[in-house]
Each structure stands twice: as structure tokens, then as C-alpha cells.
Amino acid sequence: MLLLLGSFSSDAASANTDTAETTAVTLDHTRQWEMHNAQGRAYRIMISLPDGDPPQGGYPVLYVLDGNAYFPAFHAARDTVARYHDTVIVGIGYPQAQALNFRRRSYDFSPPAPADRNEPPQGGQDELLAFLEQRLMPRVASDLPIDSRQQSLFGHSFGGMFAIYTMFKRPALFNHVVAASPSLWWRDQYLLPLEPEFQKAMQKRPKHPPSLVMILAEGDMPQQIRDARSLNERLQPLSAYGMRSSFTLVAGVDHATVPFKTVALVMREVFESP
Question: I need a surface site. Which of 82, 84, 171, 245 has the fewest CB within 10 A?
């Protein structure tokens, strides 16, 4: 009995020695750096690196908003599933440690608000759009051979609202836009007035019209589901001009969990669709 206890104690001491010093987990096949927008606000940029030589035309790339929260799941899918090895994932996050930085994302993804309704501060959507278009996307393309015709954007909740705003304002910037549980109700559906100009732009038959995928959770607010379904219905006539729009309702998930449930769906939509 004494020998047995002595042996057990030795193993425990060895285990404690092995785990005495700890470091943060790192993800293989990744790179990160910090960038600033024109206003000096910092972003953490996370890159899931492709394997092997680029396909003809360059690597397809998916930009993921709220990267602190969602980049690891998309990176794991890219790194594990063989057919996604020749793609790139770019997470756009913040230097702070929290998964979802409430104040930063509230500003970045939103339109300007009246002074008496501006807490937390809002109104940074055009600053973020300029950062993506003028700073981040050119930087990524300078580091990796990117297929300029296969660039996609994913956002959830406020990020999904911003993704649709980006499509309305810069329809040629991203080929595929995926909006999970977009907050289309925000500011009395402030995106509605932007639709007519977008529809006119699509009716001019652009060479590479964008696609829009909206993914809603069964547990989302009923209004959120109705707004997305209605937008999808209004955009369906644009299929005559080459634009694709779809609406998917995912059972068994709520607003917070739908991004993690649908990583495979998003990857299929942006990397396997024409």
C-alpha cells in the first residue's frame, strides 16, 4: 500500500511539473498583425494561411467580421477540410481580449445616431468600409495572390447588418456576402432607403453581380426573421440580372449560436458557389 501511494505521488509531481508553466494557445498555419484605420483605431487582423500553390487566378478569400469570436471556427474548417486548403480566411477583430467587443462593434457596424441616442457611440460604418476597401484588402492582396473575383464577407447580427450595408454601397467589392441573423430592424430599418439604388445598379447588369446569403436562427426574434425573409423576397427579381439571394432558417439554434452551427454552410456558399 505504501509503495503504491509513493508511486502515485511521484506521477502527480511529474504531472504538476509538466503543467507548471503555461502559455496561450496558438493556431498553426496562421498569422496576425495590427492595423489602424484612417482615424487611428486599431484592428487585430488574423489570417488563416492557405496550403500549397494558389489556384489559377489566385486564392479565394473570406473576410470574417468579429474575428476574435468567429475566426477560430472558420480557420479550423479551412485547415481541416481538404477542399478548402487553397482558400484564405481573414478575421477582422480588435486588440482587446474579449470575444465580442461591444463598444467597438457598436460603432463600427452602425449608422450615425442622434446625440440623445448615441450611447454606446455609433456611426462608424463608412470608416470601417473605407478601412476594408482602401487598407486591409490591398494589404492582404500584397501579401498573398488573391483572386479579386472571389472575395467574400461574413458578418453576424450587427456585423450582418454591416455586411448588407457594404453590399448596397459597394456592390462590386465582395462577390459573396453572408449575413447571419442581420439586425435589419436597427434604426427603423435604416437600410431600406438604400435598396432602390442597389436595385438600379443590378438592373444595369454588372459583370460580376454579388450574391447574398441570409442565415437566420430559429431562436431569432420573429421580426428579425420576417425582415430577412422580406428582403430576400424583394431581391428575387434581380435573379434576372444575375444576382442570387437566399434565405435559410436554421432549426435548433438561437441568435448567439447560429454562427458556430453554420460554418460549413458559409464555407460552401462562398468557396463552392460560382
Answer: 82
pLDDT score, position 19: 60
Average pLDDT over the chain, rounded to an integer:
92
User: In the structure grid, which three cell numbers stand for residue 171, read together?
Assistant: 456592390
**Which range (2-16, 94-108, 233-247) has the least confidence?**
2-16
pLDDT at 11 over 70: no
> Can you give the pTM of this predicted structure?
0.92
Which percentage of the chain shows pLDDT scores above 70?
93
